[in-house]
Amino acid sequence: MYQLVRNVHLALGLAIAAFMLAYSASAFRMGHYFLFKWSSPTTEQSKMVLEPAPRDPREIVAAIRAKGVMAGDLYDVETSSVGLSFLVRRPGTEYRVSYTVATKTAEVSTKSGGFWEMIDKMHHTGGTWHDEPIMSAWGTFVGLMSAFLAVVALTGLWMWFKRNRERRLGGILLTVSMIVSVLLLVIVRVG
Amino acid sequence: MVSLVRSLHIYSGLVILVALLVSSMSGLHIMTKDDPREHQPVVTRVPFSPPEGASDAEIAQLIREQFGFFQSKPVPHWAIDRVDGVLTIPLWSPNGYVTVRWDGGPEAEVTTDAFGFGEYVNQMHTHLPLGKRAIFAWIWSAYMELAIFGLAFLAASGVYLWAMTRPKLWWAALSLVVGTAGLVYFYLAMK
Fold this sequence. Notes:
The complex is a heterodimer. A five-stranded antiparallel β-sheet of chain A has the order 1-5-4-3-2. Chain A is built from five helices and five strands; from the N terminus they run H-E-H-E-E-E-E-H-H-H. In chain A, a hairpin with a 2-residue loop joins strand 3 and strand 4. By secondary structure, chain A is an alpha+beta fold. The two termini of chain A are about 40 Å apart. By secondary structure, chain B is an alpha+beta fold. Chain B folds into two domains: about 1-30 and about 125-190, no CATH class; about 35-115. Chain B is built from six helices and five strands. A five-stranded antiparallel β-sheet of chain B has the order 1-5-4-3-2, with helices on one face. Classes of the chains: A alpha+beta, B alpha+beta. Chains A and B meet through helix 1, helix 3, helix 4 and helix 5 of A and helix 1, helix 2, helix 4, helix 5 and helix 6 of B.
């Protein structure tokens, strides 16, 4: 039994190793952003005429995407007397689009970053509700990795319990951290 | 060396066990979450009468005490917004969001978004010790900060232990490659 649990712990632990490193790196960036200002996203402006004239934001997104420029989830659609504006977001890149009906012109402000911005926004992206199938697939991948993480944590706990060598100090560390963290979780929730 | 790293691997896992389980639950919750763009918070009008001559900061504090969820973060000065006589105060807590708009009349408009247990756990996993926070939430955030380093150490030491003790297991190598390749694939596909 111990050998089986050890193998499961190893297999799933190695499967999530890169994911854990990426998530801890992105969480460190979020918590210490002052160290990463150099990795802030940059903004570029572009303009394009869309023919034939699209009728709604999704068609505009599709038309711009057909030009190989934009993909992501659609947010904040606002209409005005001259046209409409909206936001399209995907990990690492955000497009703010202003479309003028009379000129059939879309002005696109693209904010994008490099590696650090990308893993930060991947960390923030989850769920299976996205406009882009690849982002929903990523949400499923995150769920799978999360399930693996729970199994790795619990199998690790079980294996520790079966070992004598780290029993005493491990028991103290586990007891203290469990009491403090669970108590905090309860206190912050119920007051 | 292997023995030392194994002991540290075990101790680290025990100390951040709750954080690992919280992060795992958070990932699973996010995967099953509905499209946030379709989410509608509850809007109510509630009697509100601050003392005569109170400053915006004092009113913000009063609003936090009266309408905020437990452990709502103190309102920073830059979040206090007054436009055309309407004061808007956003309140954030791991238990929910509240936005209060008050135009100087006898009532305030209170927009409430109360979090269920799954979202509460998700909010707690995002806690990092940034700025001024309510005290219990701040202590928890320090624990999550520790978990960031613990997560990275667990991943790195786990790979090291495998490489030093059981490197010939083909399925373990495959597991590492598949997990890493999956992450790289999504990175490239979404960029």
